[in-house]
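Researcher: Predict the fold of Patatin-like phospholipase family protein.
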Amino acid sequence: MRRRIDVFPMLVAATTALMLSACGTTPLATQGAVTQQAAPVAVQKTPRPVRIGLALGGGAARGFAHIGVIKALESQGIFADVIVGTSAGSVVGAMYAAGNNGFALQKMALEMDEATISDWSLPLFSKSSGVLKGDALQAYVNRMVSHVPIEKLKKPFGAVATDLSTGQAVLFQRGNTGTAVRASSAVPAVFQPVRINDRQYVDGGLVAPVPVRFARDMGADLVIAVNISQQPETQSGSSTIDILLQTVTIMGQSINQFELKQADIVIRPELPSMKGSDFAGRNLAILAGEKAAMLAMPELRQKIRLLQER
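Model: Structure tokens for Patatin-like phospholipase family protein follow.
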């Protein structure tokens, strides 16, 4: 007699094993979903603020080129935080620091009459130590900055002059704006020395033709120097004023070379035939400034970016 085999318990056991097996896989799948990590998100680094300084050099009428440089910089979204000027650079720098943009400066330049900044001392070369008194230049600058003193201008500004007694460079950062600019622009034998607090001052170009180090002293991280001085061999002065301006340029050549090495960017407008007394060439000077600044733009942008990423 055959033995009867009860398959029902076997089926129950097999079914139970399958269910347990299925249940065992579920926690593992769930566990994997929970522990899976999201891909890391790159955090964009905020660019470090860069304090830009603009050092504007001397060069009399060639100083109109500074306006072109400022226009070009602004067109590329670059605005100076600190402005320092010597001689002609102090004239443009003061008006820029007062809140005038490049186009406003150009309008001022084109409307300016040379007679408004020239007050001749008569009789010429008599007891006077300069041909021009400088009162007219002082009044013109004060009018253009709405008679605001240096320390209240919209941007930090400094005008560099030379102490006639010590031969040391002096940076004016307070007081009457027109007076400081007049002192910075007082070319010996062209303008009379300027007396401020019982001391006499003359053109800052004798000691700081392009005031790079003063821009550093005022807190600039990056200094853009604008050199408008001409090479002595390219200029043949004929008038007395041309010869005097040429003399100042020659005296400042070696100082200039040392000073410019400390700048991050040096912009040199090409004005080989323009004399310091050539106020009629202001348009060409402005255009030369724009062109020179645009040529320097790739290098300038790279240096700003490197400082921002530090």
